[in-house]
Amino acid sequence: MTALGKAQQKYKITFLLESIVFILSVIFLYFLQKSFAVSFAAGFFSAFFPYVLFVGVFFFVKNRQKLNLKRFYIGEACKLFFTAILVVIFFITIKLNVILFFSGYFLAILTNNLLPFFIENFNRR
């Protein structure tokens, strides 16, 4: 399997595990209080969705251009832009619990960064 194929496989597993973490967290918070679940979900989504777009475009879209550092940085800039837009939209349109919003946001960032590392180490065994 090529390096790109390995990366694609790793990120498919990562997205699946992150989705499971998201769903279980939102269900748990929903039973505590519906507004907690909404705030947490908005925060998680604000970090997760731009990440999925970035990884999807960078690793899964067939592109004739060579994968290079310039495309990577442009993708990262777009990811940050979409994250900022989502955060602003959520704060303007929904009354959010700030602590739960950022708890969801940071959990998504944490899983975005740690799961690929753990999956890579698990596959080496």
Structure report:
- The protein is an all-alpha fold and 125 residues long.
- The chain is 87% helix and 0% strand.
- It has four helices and no strands.
- The longest helix has 30 residues, at 3-32.
- The model has no long low-confidence stretch (mean pLDDT 86).
By secondary-structure content and strand pairing, the structural class works out as mainly alpha
Biggest sheet architecture: none
Q: Can you tell me the residue ranges where pLDDT is under 50 for at least 5 consecutive residues?
A: none
Total beta-strand segments? 0
Distance between the termini: 17 Å
Task: Label this structure with key terms.
flat, 125 residues, mainly alpha
Q: Topology of this structure?
A:
Elements: H1 3-32, H2 34-60, H3 69-93, H4 98-124
Helix pairs in contact: 1-2, 1-4, 2-3, 2-4
Provide a concise account of the structure shown.
With 125 residues, this protein is mainly α. It is built from four helices and no strands. It has helices at residues 3-32, 34-60, 69-93, 98-124.
